[in-house]
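Quick board copy: two proteins, each given as sequence then tokens.
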Amino acid sequence: MKTKPFSICILFILFPVLLQAAGTHSVYNLRCEHEEEPLGIETPQPRFSWQIQAQERNFEQSAWQILVADSPEKLQAGDGNIWDSGKNNSSSSVLVPFNGKELKAGQVYYWKVKSWDKEGNPSPWSLIHRFGMGLLSEKDWNNAKWIAWEKDRKDEIITTGLHGLTNVDRALKGKKTGMYRLPQFRKEFAVQKQVKRAVAYVSGLGHFDMFLNGDKVGNNFLDPGWTKYDKCALYVSFDITRQLQQGQNAVGVMLGNGFFNIPRERYFKLLASYGAPRLLMKIQIDYADGSTQTIVTGTDWKATESPVTYNSIYGGEDYDANKEQPGWMQPGFDDRSWDKALDTGWKTRLLSQRSAPLTVRDRIPTVRLFKNRQGQWVYDLGQNFSGIVHLSLNARTAQPVKLYPAELLNPDSTVNQSASGAPFWFGYTPKGNGAESWQPRFTYYGFRYVQVEGAVPAGKPNPDGLPEITEITGLHTCNSAENAGSFHCSKPLFNQTYELIDWAIRSNMASVLTDCPHREKLGWLEEAHLMQYSVQYRYNLARLYEKTFNDIRSTQATNGMIPTIAPELVEFEGGFKDTPEWGSTFIISPWYIYQWYGDTRLIETYYPDMQRYIDYLSSKADDHIIAYGLGDWFDIGPKSPGEAQLTSNGVTATAIYYYDVTLMEKMANLLGKPEDARQYSELATRIKQAFNRTFWNPSTRKYDRDSQAANAVALYMGLTTPENRQQVFDNLIADIRSRDNALTAGDVGYRYVLRALEAGGASDVIYDMNCKYDTPGYGWQLAHGATALTESWQAYGFVSNNHFMLGHLMEWLFSGLGGIRQQEDSFGFKHIVIKPEPVGDVREANASYESPYGRIVSDWKDNEKEFTIRVEVPANSRASVYLPSADTAQITESGIRLQDIPGIEYRKEGNKYIVITVGSGIYTFHAKKT
């Protein structure tokens, strides 16, 4: 008894030591190939990432160990029978490649990781995570067939889309094409043993909805993503273990047309048809006793017409509820009247859909209901967005109801589809038995208003006994990529601009980055690199860019040319077919992905094809000058917006060519190809000399016509000579100031205007340019009622009013005003730079970004007495924090003088900044003003 107090004292003395020995950090947010617990992995060497939660500051990982097993029980017991990496002395925690036994198609694997800090203390093992392999070859599909309900009409196959009414009429005369009926399929199967795991691999073209025992599988919308279907199609993997039941099961699938088959009816931007809608599926059931059962599509499946009576990605969708067959998705349904499915014999390359699926992100309620001058009811949802409607009504008859969505209204308050694709409508024929609800499955549109035909709002006069609408709600659909960043500041205009751009980004984030969510829905490629930083501050797009690059390579020409759109569902002419600023996404975006995520796979995979594109551009050059294409699209000149008006297309095309080549030099070095790097370096030197020889006027000391775009691209790309750089920067600012801070640059040039100004320390000019309501720009658009970014700076009604191509200010809101960047030689935000730039009347801003290492925060306030900033730096990374002060004696961190804090390095940069370098942790700096 007398020894107890002594033992307790010893325990208290040793507890801190024991705690330290056990480690004060943990591993969380495990990812495989940028995704938590993915299915459908096709790479033989998947890569693992994790983040670290550390109690102490300045955490650095010194080592890691990964275990991979083929069962969770083995992993729990510490048996990495597929891979035991052993302890690796490395700080890597992002995209660590698998290096174990061969991974098998259709199998699920389990993994966990632990890490050690710089003192050698280990973390506990992480929680167990899993990943599933996809189907790696044709034989892995177990002889599954592409099935359809109708035969293909061979004379209607159009794999290179037709556009323009003249071209369509010339090719097809008066013939209607693509008028296949929309099918649904079903198959029953028995489950008699205990199920360990079940996965469905599905591709339904154009799009599919899958049901199991009456319930929809997943919450995806418009699966699979659209591709150039004669080159490849995507399949989607679903874990259906919990939806199976003992005994009989029934799987049902409905198909829509998508871009696979575009009917020649209502509106169409292009016409294409690869044949009748079709389905491919394999269900793999692994039983607890080790046996496996597979169910695959074939002629033993049954098919019939679905209640979707019309569907077009461009024209809308009609649904007749009277054609529903209750119970068809359930086991025991009598399908004897259905037809046998047809084996199409069709083949194409199959790839797993690795990008995040489209889903319903938001429900948008009606904010206003009114009658237009034509006597039709219009629902105003208050926001321009991409998506569909959810309709609820009461009906006593089978009176068809049409809903016409639109972005804008005509002067008489009727809906205006003139710039968004007309006619487009959602049509619903009710059963007439009372309360009903419906929403389209296989199309979408960009809209704010919904005009009703054939129904009235509930509670309004209804002398004709029409269906009565109880609710119209907008369903905002978009790619479900994870949110990565947030921004807010004290200036309402900038917050409104942030939302304006963000709505346009989301509305055009589908399975491709589209130009607009209605008229075209095409992947115009310039946006993919010019807006890449802006979009990646908001969303994690690593997986979407994997699909983008497969789309690009699938449409690269034999001569190396990259078209302006990918997938190239239609061939345009002239600059709309081939423009360097568009095709150069193939060079620029892989480098940006490497910068942001530390991911080299796009570079490694596509480097030979990227070389082919550089060779193509070189073949188009005249003495190293490229002068063709659309140029600075939609700049502000004397004419209506379109091709560049203020800047010669040779300026932007040659500048982007030069930039491409400098990036190829960097990527060649990254891949260990010094001879390639030398050749690209020499080519870049020759292009730079030619550019200055052609476009620099030594007497006026100006580039080209001295436009904002011309000066900005020369500055950003590094094309200016050292002795002229300041002059070009001064010319850029002088032009802006001479126009009372009005912008003129367009789709290509404006990003570089902002980049050049920010790099030159002129965020005050950026502020002045973007605080205006009286000249075209963001404030102008807001003042004219825009709720999503418009295609033109002027917010014209004759072009799209939901376009994200001019949203470059988003990048500055995060990097300049918010201050979150990374050091030039850093990748994956390993070394962060926090450098906010307070300007104008902005007194505070809060920006965050979820980097591969964890959450970065820059939260600052500025007043006449002091500048305060709260910074979060994730574990296993570092940050350089710029404080607007010239005196270290005036700076404290959490109330402690800077020089009294261990582990903090600081230096003076000019008379404007004290730069403090810190490790991970949360810091609050105060810089008093003298």
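And the next:
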Amino acid sequence: MLNLPAKILALALLAAVPSSVAIAPVAVAQVQAKPSAPPIKFRERTLPNGLKVISSVDRTTPNVTVQVWYGVGGKDDPEGRTGFAHLFEHLMFKATRDMPAETLDRMTEDVGGFNNAFTADDMTAYYEVAPAHHLERLLWAESQRLGSLVIDEAGFASERDVVKEELRSRVLSNPYGRFVSLLIPSASYSVHPYRRPVIGSIEDLDAATVDDVLNFHADYYRPDNAALIVVGNFDEAALDAWVDKYFGPIKTPATPLRRVTVEEPARTGAKTVTGYAPNVSLPAIAITWQAPRAAHPDAAPLMVLDAILSGGKSSRLYNSLVYDQQLAQTAFSTAELNAQPGLFYVGAIMAGGKTLDEGEKALMAEVAKVRAAPPTPAELAEAKSEMIAGAVRERETIEGRASVLGGALLLEGDADKANTGIAELEAVTAADVQRVAVKYLDPERMVVIRYLDESQRPAGQAEAAPPATAVPSRPFTGQRVTLRPEGEREKPPALGEPIAPVLPTASEKTLPNGLRVIVARSSDLPLVTVDLTVRAGSIFDPDGKAGLAGMAADLMTEGAGGKTATQIAAQTEALGADLSAGGGSEFTSVTLNVLSSNLDPAIGLMADVALRPAFEADELDRVRDQAIDGFQVSLSEPGSVAGYVVAPAVWAGTPFGDISTPTTLKALTRDDLAAFHKRWFRPDNAVLVIAGDITPERGFALAEKAFGAWKAPADRLPPAPPVTAASQPRIIIVDMPGAGQASVIVAKRAITRDDPRYYAGLVANNVLGGGYSSRLNQEIRIKRGLAYGAGSSLSVRKGSGGFSASTSTKNETAGEAADLLRAEMGRLGTTPPTADEMAARKSVLIGSFGRALATTDGLASTLGSLAAYGIDLGEIKVYTARIEAVTPEQVRAFAAQVLKPGETSVIVVGDGKLFGESLKKALPNAEVIHLSELDLDSPTLRKRK
């Protein structure tokens, strides 16, 4: 798995808009508690073979996480083999001497847990979460992966194909994937291997051999280059004994570890680099500087500087480029501090009609300001509050705590930096921030990186091809490991005694104004989530004004209760809170996550946002322009286009078929937003959930204080619009020239939330496409290597539900993927799941449900959803029993009655010239629409001739 920086790639597509009611604003206290993050208590020891072992006990959870972090990443890729560390990450999920391929999924996902891994520049980490009584088995499995991995030609070829599809999905088909993964690092470094993309290139992946893989494992996967991290509910003495038993015998090679010794030279001047890529609808710019390593004393001030520049809507870059000047769709900064010296950069994706020259000038003006004067006390306090509150949120789960410890160890050489690093942030002064800005952000040593659409490349200028690096493979001379015959394999350890989960109990009352309030204590961590759900969403949008509900939600935090958008952002961030509003098809929610010490002032601010939004006309214009820019960007990505086309294809003639487009957004007025809010935002149409570190008594008192004055109108609630239509399925191919990958979606209508087949539907969907071991992923990724992943989704609603199965694959195999999606839907309707499938998929559902209830956000969302749908809150107590009661025949019957592949709409979006005959054969009667002719405002989806 490889994650692209969210600051750069998250372009939100805006949707609908609410209105105000006449209630006096609740005063927000200006004094807030100084945030603090509880330290992670852990033990650390080192085995004689060099393996570091870190453990932390948590008796409140029934689960455990096992993580192994290796000191090898993209920077360690052999020359001519970029992407190799990441490719190897995939191969670690294959066979060992005693475990057949995919066994780790049986040990985690199939028992209600999960597993995954990630590769970064400096590290590769593998992690599992499972019920705590599986701990010994997971330790045994990880020791097998370290000490006796099997690498063969078949597994290598299959995973190499999967990695190619991941590269196409994350980099080549994303309009800004090349900008982030390829252009910024290659332009910013001259000699250090950080200049190479962690995900690699198709050419280098093709050049790799099994010998390369075996040598890589021997070079880097060794005890003295690894850290085992265990967090959860376990006995420390038993853990020590198991670690000694399974990891202790693994020998450390006598050869020294290979280490990157290349040093990036200091820059001696400034330069500009320009890159081009297909389907870049809005230009982007980044300006980079050299920065120190993560363990350097200047790291903490640089992280605070990063937060001041782009940490939230009160940050300098957002206020200047996005809000005030409206030059950019998004603005960002990043302190990319690695184990070796890294980068600091600022950047922006420009707004429609704005130029890169304007962006560069505005960015450098903000850099000049922070170099010329220290930040204000308020800015410094806000930045620290945000960062420390973020550290608390990272500690909410056992896997989050383990990751914090692993990152500190691998990047800074000391796991305790997870705790002491917070004190270092608190100690940063305004003078420190200015000092590092002056020291590192020198205009004479910057690299300006400009990113434009391929159509803007100067005539005759060819793309600069990277120099060919034909590097021969180094023959592997060590011992090759093979999978033992079944009867000779070492058996996994027996399971321990299960630990019963303790489910939270919800208390509720209804205020005199009709607002239903639910409070559930779920954690001793000082976090609280407050969620207000209103029963009104996009299906309530008037004809021709799709996007009204979503735009209303987006504008609620942009001015309310006599406060401007910037004031709301500043107060929210000073409290270390996350405050947001969002609209769905049937509901709109306002959600607050905050440290419990700052809950009182934060819930008052939330009430202003929810009950007293201003919906100023100029804010509507600004947010609408951003939404339209975001929409244009999304038309450059195959998956987004496919998602748009699905709605009218499946739901034509119903409110679910309406799409928010520039046309409908331009039709919205301030009065529309106010009318929507006045009609639907009323206490007798809402549910308030408060979950986390809070008692019912305090929760009810806060609800009464913040929302008790909210008056319910005398008139009755209007009915929800009907969702009935008899549209026929459609088969649609959208030709997107230059698309790096094809998106394939098979979709149809399905059941409502109150359907008696609901639980059978959950299990059926999970068998088909609910995880790595599901049928779709098995057929499309594991067996054929056609995609990075394939899955399905069952969306249940009040009005009408939906089902979809989807994947992304190279353009040439889109037809094969479409056939496989429909074939597996049909097969489930004729072939009931096996007993093993049923047990595994039920465990997935039960495990994920339990983990959701363990976080404040997850618990609040679950309770709010049940209440909004009118379902008894006791459902959280009986969920497991109802899942367990589903039979294989009920799953088969659900698939036969509901999934029916012959009644589905099929949407394929990709580069038409590459589809070939397979797609024509798979979809012989498809409508073919060129992207330039696509009209999402028309029922036909075609522009008029």
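Board note added afterward: The first helix runs from residue 6 to 9.
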